[in-house]
Amino acid sequence: MKRVTILFILLLSLGTVFSQGSFQKSLDVLLEAPLIRVAPDGKHFYLVNLDKTSGSKKIQIYKIDAQGNIIWQQEKFSAVENIELKAIAVVSDGLMILLSAYVSEKQSNGFVLKFDTIGGIVWSREIGTKNLTQLFDFQEDNTGSIWLSGLHFMQNATDSSYYFLTKLSPEGLPIQSAQNTFNYLSNGLNASCKYTDLSWDQKNGTLTYVEDFDCPFSNSGNVHFNRGRFALGYCKQNFQFDEYFCDTQFSVLENTQKFLIFSGYSTLVNQMKDKPLIGIIDASGKQEKIARLTPGLFVPIHSRSDDIVFYAKEDKTLTKFNDQLLPIWTINLDNCSVTTAFNADIASDGMIYTVRNINDKTVIAKVLPDGSLSACNSYRRKSPEMPVREKTNWVSLAPGGYIPVPMPDTIRAFTFIPKSGLSKDYCVRIDAYFELPDTICLGARIKPAIVDTTPGNNNTWDILNIQSDENIPEIYFPDLGRIKVVHSVQNTICSDVESRFVQVVEAPQITAQDTLVCGPGILSLDIGKNATAFYLDGDLVSSPVMIGQSGIYSLEVENKGCNEKKDIEVKIVEFPPAINAIDSTYCFGDTVRVALNNSFDAVFWDNKPFQDSFVIIDANTHSYRARYKPDTICMVSGALSVPRKRCNAADDFMFIPNVFKPDSQEENHLFQVFPKASAQILGVKIFDRWGNLCAQWAGAGLGWDGTFRGQKAAPGIYTYFIEYLDLSNPVRAILSGTVLLVR
Asked: Who has the most CB within 10 Å: 355, 478, 495, 675?
C-alpha cells in the first residue's frame, strides 16, 4: 500500500477570504468513481473506490481526518468478475461496503463487507443464491442491524423472480426477510415491486423505502392503472409495512436528521410530466411533501445534520436550500477546473465533505455551511428559480401485501482471492494485509508492519520462492530489482492473500575523503554516487558542493531505500608568501640578500636547492619552489627579481602607477606602463602574493583590468616585472615593483 502524500491546490482567488475550516486537497491518485461518507462523530470520513482500470478489481479505502489528512489507506483485491461498487455506509465501529457482480442479464451476485476503524475486515458475506441475487441498497438501523434491498432471479420453471427486503444481524447473519406482492384489483394477480432506495429514520425507528411498480417480472401481460407508478413506504422493526402512492418517479432518496429529500420526475399527465423536480417530506412520512421543479436533474446529498443540499450534475453546482426548498446559496465547483465523478456527504456540524476528479487527480474538499470553499473562486451566483409543484399530496394507500419469504438459501463468506470451494461457514476477521516500504536497500533485513497475528491464523510468506511460516519474519533482500513478497493467511474456514512489490536498490556510497587544500581557494567536493539526495551538515545540497573554509563536515547520501553517513575533515591551508617582501628598489649592480619565510623549507632557486637565503646581483627574473611547513605536501612556486633602477640616470625609463581602481570610471581603472623615449617595453608580468601569474602582455599600450581566471582579483598588493630595452645603451633590463589594487 502506498502512502499518499496530500497536496494543496493553491488557486486562491484575489480578494476572497475563506474560513480556515475549509480545505481543498489533491490526492496523488485518480479514483475512477469514489464514494464518500462522514463518520457519525464528524471527526473523519472515508473514501471508497473500485479500481478496474488495470484489470485488478482493486477496492481502495481511505480514512481521512476532518482536516483532510490521510489516516490510513487500504487496498483489497477481488477475484470476482464484473464486480461493481453500489453503496457505502459509515457506522460507529467501522465501514460497510455493498458490492454487486454482474454474471449475465438475469444472473448476478451481491456482497456486503464490514471493516473496522483501522482498516481490518471484520466480516464479509455473499448474500443470496449463487448467481441469482442482485442487491440495490443497504442501511444500518439504530440497533446495528442491516437492511438490504435486492432481487432474486428465477432459476427454473418452478421458481419465480421477486424483489425482497432482508434484515441481517450486526454480524451480517440473516434475521428476517419479506417480499412485496402487489395485487391487481381487476383480476387478483400478483406482481412484485422493486425497492430502489432505503433510508433509516433514527428518531422513529423505521425504514423508509421507495417502491417501483414498473416491474419487469409480472404474472400478467395486461397493462393496469397502477403500473409505472411509485410508492414511498415505511417498515417497522417487526416488518410491519405502510405505503403510499405518489406522483413522483424517484431517482434518488436521501435523508437528513429532519427530512427525507429526493429528486426525480413528475408523473402527472399534464404539462409537468417528465419535468425534473426536487422535494422534501417529514422523516415520519406522514406530512405533505413540498416539491419544486428544477431546470435539470439535482441529486440530494446525504446529511447527518438538518442541512438540505443538492448537487446539479449539468452545471457542477452545489445549492443549499431552506425547509421550504428556497435556495440559500449556490457555488460552482467548476470555477477551479473541469470536475467529474462527484460525490458528497454532510457531517452533523453542517460541513460538506466532497470528492471529485480534476484532470488526472482526485480532490477532496470541505465546504463550510455558508458555502465557502478554500483554494477556489467559489463566488455566489444567481440561484435557479424553483417553482412550486401544484399537487403535493399523496395519492392513496397502495393495495399491496407483504409476505414472509425464505431467507437467502446461502450466505457465504466473500473472500478476495481465488480458492477451491466456498465455505458455508462465516469468516470472522482474517486479513493478510501487511506493509513494506516501496523501496528497500540491497542486503537490508526488515520485518513487515501491521500484520494480523490473531491466534489460529496460519501465516505463510513467499519471497523469491522461499517460504517462511513465521508470523512476522525478518525478510532479507540479497538481489537487486523488483521483488514480490506474498503473505497468505488461512484457518479452517477462510483464507486471504496480500502481495507487495518491493524495489531493491543499491546502497549509495560516500566517496569524499579527508582533504587538504594547499593555498586559499574553494574545494569542489563530489560527495558520493548511486544517490538521489545529498546532505551537508543536514542541509540538502547538490553534488559537487563548494567548500570554502576548513572544518569537519557531516555528509549523508540517500536514495529511495538506503542512506549512508560519514564525517570528513577539510583543511584549507592559507600561507604567506614564501619570500619575504623586498621593500625598496636597488641600483643596478647592488648585491641583495633575499630571505626565506620561516614557515617554508626545501627551497629550490632556479631548480637548485637553497636553505634559507640567497643573493641576487642581476636584474633578471628567477624562479623558486618551496614547501609550506615540513609536515605538509603543499608546494609554493613563483618568480622573483629585485627591483632595479639606474641610479646615475637623469630620469626614469618609464612611468609606473603605484595604485589602480578597476571598478571605477576614472583614468586609473587599468594598470598600465608608460615608457619614455629612452625605453622600449618588451613584456609585463603581474604576480599575486602567492606567486600566481595573474596577467601578462607584450609591448606597451595594454594593461591589466584587475581580473584573475575570469573573476575579480582580491584587493591588495601585487608584484610586477617589466622587461624593457634601454635604447641609450642598448641593453635588456628588468624592472620590478609593487602596485596596490583597490576596490
From this structure: 355
